[in-house]
Each structure stands twice: as C-alpha cells, then as structure tokens.
Description:
There is one protein chain. By secondary structure, the chain is α+β, with helices and mostly antiparallel strands. 47% of the residues lie in helices and 12% in strands. A five-stranded antiparallel sheet has the order 2-1-5-4-3. Strand 4 and strand 5 (254-260) form a beta hairpin. The longest helix is centred in the C-terminal third of the chain and has 20 residues, at 263-282. The protein starts with 7 loop residues before the first helix and ends in an 8-residue tail after the last helix.
Amino acid sequence: MAVRQAGGQAELAHFLRAMRARLTPQDVGLPPGARRRTPGLRRQEVAQLASVSIDWYIRLEQGRVGTPGAAVLDALAGALRLSPAEVRHLHLIGRGEVPLPVYDRPLVGSSLRALLAGMPLLPAYVLDFRLDVLAHNAAAAALFGADFGTPGADNLARALFLPTPVRAMQLDWARVARETVGNLRANRARHRDDLPLRELIAELRSASADFATWWDDHTVKERDHGTKRVLHPAVGELTVNYDALAAPGGFDQCLIAVTPADPAAERALRTLVSGHVAARATTGVRPIVA
C-alpha cells in the first residue's frame, strides 16, 4: 500500500492548481466560453475531462480527500496534459509511489550497444524484465552459441527450461534455473499486468515440472551477481562470474556482464572469442552482434 508523506495533500493541491492554471480551454479542445476572471481551466472543466465528480475534485484541490487511486491520477494527468516527468511527480506526491512506465520493448540505445561492442573479450547482453535478450555482443555468441539472442532463442528463461544448448551447458543447472524462477517472480510483482510475462510464466509452468514446482513454492530471487560453471563443447569446463548492471531509461532492463573466475576461464574465453571472430570474418559477417 502506498503511504503519502506528511504534507502530501497540500502539495498535491498546489500542484493541481498550478497545472490547471497554465492551460486554456483551447489547449484541451474545449470552447473558450464566457469571459474568465482567472487564467487557466476551471475546476469543473478538469473534472469533466478526467471523468470525475466535480465535488470530489474540489475536495481534492482543497486537500480534503484520502489517497486517490492510480487510475484517477492517470485520468487527471491526461486532462491536465502532463509530461511523463510531471505524471511521475503527480503519482509520487499523490500516492507516495512512482508508476512503472508502459513497456513496449524499446530498442536498446546506441550508447549501450557501443558499450557491448567495446567489451570484445567479455560476453555481455541486455535483458528486460521478461528475460528477453534485447542485444548481445560477439563474445556472448561465442560462449552461448551462434543462435543466442536470435528469434527462437532470445529468452533466457526458455533457454534454461526447454531443451536448448544453453541448458545443456549448465553444470549448476538446478541452482541457476531455480534462481531464474525467483527472478521472474520478483519481476512479475513489479509488472503484474504485463501480458507477455504472464504468458511466458504459464508456458513454462506447462512445459517444465521443475519450473511449476519452484514457481508454486514462491521462490523469490533478485539475480544481480553470482558464479556458475558451464561446459562448452569447444573448450570444456569453465567457471565464470556474472554481474547485472541496471540500464538507464526506467524500463527495468539490465546489462549482464560475464567475467572469468580464474586464469583458466580467461584463457578459454580468449580462445572462444578469437575463434568466433575468425569464423565470422571468413563468412563476411561483422563480429559485433546487435
């Protein structure tokens, strides 16, 4: 439950009045009407645009109502033509919480892609809260396979729970897979209304008895760093670390960087990456994968 800070009602009232005062009827598609004594929209006009009771809106501007619902604040934000930053501020002062932005799988920014390309010896990739692989570098393809991050092999949860090369590589599969279930459960709590995420969870519950068991025991895990052992067909067993770094933009994306845990793993990664780059060069394909 959101908790409003002390003085939140007064601050919300001042904010709504200020946002109302900066608009004209023409700004929101209303007729100018009779001569106005004060600038801006009238309270009844805001209530009309937001489809709320005029009496309730007057009490809201007077600081005499309880915590408004998120849907009502969204309606007021639309009526007052608020910017994304102003919408976040409205929710923060009105409910004590900031709404998550609507997620429509935005493209990974050019600066983040440049960062991936600038890590030629370290496997790295960008995940969203659904564990979709949005971008990766050549080193990640060298470690996890040429299909990694491509259509049909672009979701890490499916790669771990369905019969895939990525699953076959995991020497600590049970631990890594269970942590992944916990990660999805934590993500679902933040994105409860995201239909693709709900469909992914339903799919994996049906396809994997292990996933269903771990999902039903309410495992929760935030995977921000760790160590795992993988078995690569070309270089054998290697131990690697991974770290999840939050990506900018507010869309709950992260960059996963894989680093060698010991000198043997470092040598193995160098062998894999150099071999992958050489193979791509002979086919005329650029070594950095977007």
